[in-house]
Amino acid sequence: MDALVIHSAGDLRVEDVVTPEVLAHQLRVKVRYGGICGSDLHYYQHGGFGTVRVKEPMVLGHEVAGVIEEVGSEADGFAIGERIAISPSRPCGACRFCQQGLQNHCLDMRYFGSAMRMPHVQGAFRREIVVEAAQAFKLANSVSDKEGAMAEPLAVALHAVRRAGPLLGKKVLVTGCGPIGALVVVAARRAGASTIVVTDMGDYPLRSALKVGADRALNMALQPDALAEFAVDKGQFDVLFEASGNERALRGAFDALAPRGIIVQVGLGGEMTLPINAIVAKEFDLRGTFRFHEEFGIAVELLNKGLVDVKPLISATVPYRDAGRAFALAADRTQAMKVLLDFE
């Protein structure tokens, strides 16, 4: 069946990939939609990110939803024709981190569409895929396949919000309003944040963040000192989610963050130089966040119950055979948040 295979930077091909036999605890799924993630863009534009490089042909993609076409003999609880969101995460379950409940730090993780290990873990941008039953989460009739493909980035945001601790009544700042930053707004609002202010360098992502629950949106390109009003009395925000991966965004938010504020670094970029004196003097708590585990199931449950709305973040749907145009659109932050590939 057709799949989108990356060979090197800019070399993305539609190729016929063999679908493996379905084993006892597995499902064969017809993929309907897949979301283009920032990591997919890095593979497409640069051949990788940091030290992670494409060293062999690899099927891209890890944000997908589809319909079950075949059920393994021991994949209890599933039926042909059921629609599912697919978690791209396959922790081993046996290493010390999995045993501690830290499956996102698994020592033998297999994550769809990842070149972090050799051989690479093939991804889900394909018309047909075989997955473990444990990776499948049923979608309610009220949830579209397109929304189901948003479960993975929503899970990333939910994990980031969980890393911040209780948010009930908290004042939250989110710097960087790409898809993950906007979904952090969704998750933080659901967690009870009383005020959410977002910053970005572009109007389109800021407008999108307002649609999903932000109270105020500040364009730092037009108003570089926009956070100054929040710096009074040692800072007004309780929690900062830094989702841009940009050092200037992180450092620029320190004055607006109150003493003992919590910083959750969500975005990945280059190495940063931080003002350690400020972190010490204001007793900031700096926390990282990486992927997710049980939050994927939570994301699907929130979608199924209609407790969150991700539809405003879906900017466009493009046929998979026109992947070049889809990736170019996904990289254009003036007109796109999440771009989905249509595998029908």
Automatic annotation (TrEMBL):
The residue ranges of the Alcohol dehydrogenase-like N-terminal domain are 25-139
Q: Check the record and name the Pfam families matching this protein.
A: ADH_N, ADH_zinc_N
| InterPro entries per UniProt | ADH-like_C, ADH-like_N, ADH_Zn_CS, GroES-like_sf, NAD(P)-bd_dom_sf
Which SUPFAM superfamilies did the record assign? Answer: GroES-like, NAD(P)-binding Rossmann-fold domains
Q: Which residues cross the membrane?
A: none
GO MF annotation list: oxidoreductase activity; zinc ion binding
Which prosthetic group or cofactor does it need?
Answer: Zn(2+)
Query: Where does the record place the Alcohol dehydrogenase-like C-terminal domain?
Result: 179-304
Which keywords, in A-to-Z order, does the entry hold? Metal-binding, Oxidoreductase, Zinc
The record's listing under Gene3D superfamilies reads: Medium-chain alcohol dehydrogenases, catalytic domain, NAD(P)-binding Rossmann-like Domain
Family (UniProt): Belongs to the zinc-containing alcohol dehydrogenase family.
Q: Please report the name of this protein according to its UniProt entry.
A: Alcohol dehydrogenase catalytic domain-containing protein
